[in-house]
Amino acid sequence: MITKLTTVLAGTLELDGGAMFGVVPQSVWRRVYPPEEGSNRCTWAMRCLLIETDDGRKILVDTGIGEKGDARFRKHFNPSIPQELVSGLAAVMTWPEEITDVLFTHLHFDHVGGASYLDETGKAQLTFPNATHWVCGKHWSWANKPNAREAASFLPANLNPLEQSGKLRFLPDQDSDFDWVSGIRLRTVYGHTEAMQLPLIDLPDGRKLVYCADLIPSAAHLSLPWVMAFDVRPLHTLAEKERLIEHALAGDWTLLLEHDARVAGGKLIKDERGRLSLDGTFGTFSYDHLTGH
Ligand SMILES: [Zn+2]
Asked: 192 C-alpha to center of ligand 1: Å?
């Protein structure tokens, strides 16, 4: 059973708005999700999730971009340095050694980079040294033999330390949602990349949440045709978004957004004209079974 759940911001990065909004013209997306002044790049959050369970697990979902990138990488993505993941966890009284599990939705650098860091000798170390690190096995194989479009997103500097740690475990990919730990099911989707996995979360108070990862990275992406140009199978993304939206509306789900710099999520609603939006948006989400909040 889940006893606590908190969103933790790892930091921000900048990505080209055109790449993030695919076929949507710039004149349209820049009104909805404004870029930085004099630039086509928008600022995106990297929002992770800390989930605690009654059997003592402290599960971290995704880890942000980390700090291993060199000057060229930093110029390109302008990640906030220092990243805030470890300090954000400390703010909720959780130390890196206490994390028992890290779940990667997928292995693009802005989701996996924070799982390792370079020590003073330049050697990569795990940020969460005692954690078992989980990723879909099918996705791991895909990431380690990347196609030319995704090769710049799957960095050996992020994957090698995990492989060498002996703390990597693989999850199955199943057509239907499957139970992972008590209160968390996983849904496997194939549009953004091969076999990305989204946690579907049942809180003990009856609320349901979905951590949307890169299927719906921001509130702007609720609109069906707003699909990232990065996606390897955009028509799959469309169908997967439609299905998630249908389930979220029917089940009164709260959406948690990994990349939206302005809102962390909200309850999905649809108006009489069929337009989707988030109701009761929040900047952070936290749940504590003891206090009921
Ligand atoms: Zn991604």
From this structure: 7
Does 202 fall in a domain? Answer: yes
Contact in structure between 263 and 283 (CB atoms under 8 Å): yes
- Is 102 within the bounds of a domain? yes
**Contact status, residue 7 vs residue 287, Cβ threshold 8 Å:** no
CB 259 within 8 A of CB 49: no
Which residue from 2, 118, 108, 99 is spatially nearest to 46, judged by alpha carbons? 108
What CATH number corresponds to the domain at position 98?
3.60.15.10
Q: Look at residue 133 and tell me if it is in a domain.
A: yes
Q: State how many domains the chain has.
A: 1
- Residue 190's pLDDT is 98
- The residue assigned the tokens 């028509």 is 235
Q: Tell me which residues of the chain have a pLDDT lower than 70.
A: none
User: How high is the pLDDT of residue 175?
Assistant: 85
pTM for this structure?
A: 0.97
The CA 203 to ligand 1 mean position distance, Å, reads 26
Predicted pLDDT at 81: 94
| Containing structural domain, residue 204 | 2-288
Q: Tell me how far the alpha carbon of residue 150 lies from the centroid of ligand 1, in angstroms.
A: 9
Distance 234 CA to ligand 1 centre (A): 13
| Residues in the 5 Å CB sphere of ion ligand 1 | 108, 214
262 CA distance to ligand 1 middle (Å): 19
Query: What pLDDT sits at residue 142?
Result: 97
The answer to whether position 293 is within a domain reads no
Ligand 1 centre from 272 Cα, in Å? Answer: 32
Q: Give me ligand 1 centre to Cα 95, in Å.
A: 26
